[in-house]
Write a structure and sequence with these properties.
Layout: H1 6-23, H2 25-33, H3 50-90, H4 96-103, H5 105-108, H6 111-121, H7 130-152, H8 155-166, H9 171-200, H10 203-208, H11 216-226, H12 229-252, H13 255-261
Amino acid sequence: MTASDPISRIGRFFAWSAAVLVLGPLPVLLAVSTSPNWQRGPWVGGFTLRWLIEAWERIAPIVSFSVQLALIVLLIDFLIGLPASWVLARRNFRGRQLLLSLTILPVAVPGIAVGLGLILAYPTLKAGGWLLIVGHILYTLPFVIGSLTPTLADAKLREQETAAETLGANSLQRLLFVTLPQLRRTLTAAAVMVFTLSMGEFNVSFFLFTPNQKPLPVELYSGYITGRLEVAAAATVWFLLLVIPAAVLIERLGGSRLRGQA
């Protein structure tokens, strides 16, 4: 298809329309968060950084907790996801396809249902924050397994491992010098994706958080419900500054392909 093809023109039109629809609220957020009083209009009375400073002071401890939570989830996801992906990619056994389907099931279940189910099943674990971690793992682990399994099953990778074995490389050497280098891009993309998903997860977090363990999306929601609009908008600006670079990096590393596999 050429650039002048009608289908291409229609596709570009809808692509740009989607981009405008998604990015359109960003200038409004910036205007609200830098206006002295949004009710009087944008920048009536001048330009202020007061709300951005106040919002950061409010959410800084919560950002720290959310980052720690995302890193813990990322570590556990890899501890579980790497061996699970290896087995699913390299072993044929009865029930393999069923198990592979079950690994992506949490993505298809609404986060509210996951959160409510965890509370009903393990109520005593909520106070310690373990349910929050489990909820985030259930939501993010499918993306790790879904991205690593096809890469580990790739025929070219297996041929390289076989060639290394014939040259005398042992299992550890093949893992360190053949397998992991080939997984580097996929691992990086999966890590950034898990981190971003955990930072932005609301539905599961809303049911499983405690007053002392509140993820950032829950705080943003509370700010819009109970706080001043300008401060809530400023907090959202800080949140976007945290997650947008990660989202861009995911796409640079092949995020659309990874999400399709998961």
